Structures are given as C-alpha cells and as structure tokens.
Amino acid sequence: MIEENDINESDDSEEWVSKTQRKREMQYRQDLGERILALKQNHRDQLNLSEELIRALEETKRIKKNEALRRHKQYIGKLMRDIDLEHVEAFLEKLDNSHEINTRAFHDLEDLRERLIEGDNSVVGEAIGKYPNIDKQKLRQLVRNAKKERQTNISQNASETKQSRALFRFLRDSGTSN
After folding, report:
1. Own/partner pairs for 140-148, CB < 8 Å, 24+ apart?
2. How far apart are CA 63 and CA 78, in angstroms?
3. In angstroms, rounded to a whole number, what is the distance separating the alpha carbons of residues 74 and 67?
4. Helix or strand or coil: residue 161?
C-alpha cells in the first residue's frame, strides 16, 4: 500500500518537464553538436569528448543523404546528453569572443591606416604612442608612399593600393610583436 507521504516525496524529487521543453533541450544539444561538428579538429580535441561521440562526429563526414544526415545529427544530439554542456558552452563562447576581438582589432588597424594616410603628423605620433617599439622611420616612409600613391590613384579612381596594403601589414606586424 502506497502512503501519501511516499507519493509526495517522489513528486518533490522529480521535476515535471513538458514534452515541448524536452524537445527544446534536445534541439539545443543537437545544435551544440552541429557547432562542434563545424569546429576544426584541433579545437575539437580540446573538448575531451567521449570516444563514441568522436566516432559519431567523424562518421558524419561520410554521410551524404539529407535524411540520413538529419537522423545522424539527432543521434549526435542524443550522445550530447552524456557530456558536460557547461564546458562545451564556455569553450564555444571563448572561440566566438576571440573571433569578435580579432575582427575588432582588424577594423581598428584599418581605421588607423586610413587616418595615417588622410591625416597629418599628429596621427603618426598617435601610432608611435600606440606601438612604442615600431620602426618610426619605416612607418613615416610607408605613410608617405601610401599618400603619394593615393594622390596619383585618385585621378585613376583606384581603390586600395599596394602601398596602403604594405602599411596595413606593417602596422599589423608591429602590433603583434608588442
């Protein structure tokens, strides 16, 4: 005979989850699996995935049919139940943030290059302040060359120039050496 106390204890320990919520969670795990699938091998190795999941990810390369691929991705989502999602989420977020930071740095360098070409010596001083170990003479030479080339190309309607790209590479390399 089941007592009322026993029923209440089992209800408290098990949290009721709707079918819709379970489907959302499975879809989320499947989406995470697809993001892992899209990673380069060296990034995937850093996740410490189970052997079974690694085999399933490698098997995906072989599957060509759409329906079979869809079912296989569902299987990967099912295997994702057994791994630490917090670790995977943190790793993927770190990768996304590093990409965002690299993109922002790239745009900042492009902006600095444009201001160097369009601006005066105060912008050169700003670049020297930002990169204290930069070869000042080479920087000034590259800026001068890019300005000259841009002046001659304005009449020819050319966009980015060879000297402008050389200045960008120089700034990029000076920034990474610091």
Report:
1. 142/166, 142/167, 142/170, 143/116, 143/117, 143/167, 146/113, 146/116, 146/117, 147/117
2. 18
3. 11
4. coil
**Is residue 88 domain-resident?**
no
pLDDT at residue 56 in the model? 92
Q: Does residue 145 contact residue 164 with C-beta atoms inside 8 Å?
A: no
Place of tokens 């990967």: 76
Rounded mean pLDDT for each run of 10 residues along the chain, 178 residues in total: 51 76 89 88 86 90 88 90 86 85 85 86 82 87 87 64 86 72
In 14-135, where does DSSP find H-type helix? 19-38, 41-45, 51-60, 66-79, 85-118, 121-130
Give the per-residue pLDDT at 161: 77
CA distance 135 to 126: 14
151 inside domain: yes
**Number of domains forming the structure of the chain:** 2
Residue 26's domain comprises 18-83
Same domain, 72 and 104: no
